[in-house]
Amino acid sequence: MRQAFLFIVFICCTIGATAQRPFTRNFWFNDANIPVRVNAMLQDGYGYLWLGTDNGVYRFNGRQISLMGDSTSSAVTALAMYGGNVVSGHADGSIRMLVDGAFVPFTVNGARPSSTISDLYCDGAGVLWACTEGQGFFMIMNNIGVACNTSLGLSDDYVYNISIFPGRHLVVSTDQGINEVDLEG
Question: What is the pTM of this model?
Fold first, then answer.
């Protein structure tokens, strides 16, 4: 009787163990199943997943992956939503915007990045923030760029992320630590 009980317990444990196996599925960017390096990801309001790669920007709808626009010569290193459009930052410092299914150059007058863009962020006020590796960060509003770097008190020009807190305070991460920037003062 005891052996039958142990046998039933053993069978129940193995059934529970197989139920814990996670479901995974691989999606490939191309027919040749060649791995593609993903540098940035973004989910838009429609549920699409945007992937910035060395080969360009791909859109994933949960079933298939599509290359959006033309592939670019410079790797996509950052993605953001700006005014309802996907904006991409590149390793050569360029910024592009998806318009009618194609990525077109995003015009920036004044100061503009020329080094690798590590992060893009759009706040609720319509300002696009671009972090760079070597030039600080840029505030782009109405297509006019303003640079903030070590000459204005930033601890380092290698900026990786920006977060905006209440009261218009920026928190900027650099190689030399965290910087707080007050936009009001």
Answer: 0.78
Structure tokens of 88?
A: 């991409």
Q: 107-123 pLDDT, tens per residue?
A: 889 888 888 999 998 88
As given in the structure block, the two tokens for residue 9 are: 């317990």
Can you tell me the distance from the alpha carbon of 148 to that of 115, in angstroms, rounded to the nearest whole number?
A: 14
Q: How far apart are CA 93 and CA 135, in angstroms?
A: 10
- What residues contact residue 91 under an 8 Å CB cut-off, 6+ apart? 74, 75, 77, 116, 117
Q: What distance in Å separates the CA atoms of residue 167 and residue 76, rounded to the nearest whole number? A: 32
Type of residue at 143: N
If DSSP states are collapsed to H, E and C, what string results for the chain?
A: CHHHHHHHHHHHHHHHHHHCCCCCCCCCCCCCCCCCCEEEEEECCCCCEEEEECCEEEEECCCCEEEECCCCCCCEEEEEEECCEEEEEECCCCEEEEECCEEEECCCEECCCCCCEEEEEECCCCCEEEEEECCCEEEEECCEEEEECHHHCCCCCEEEEEEEECCCEEEEEECCEEEEEECCC
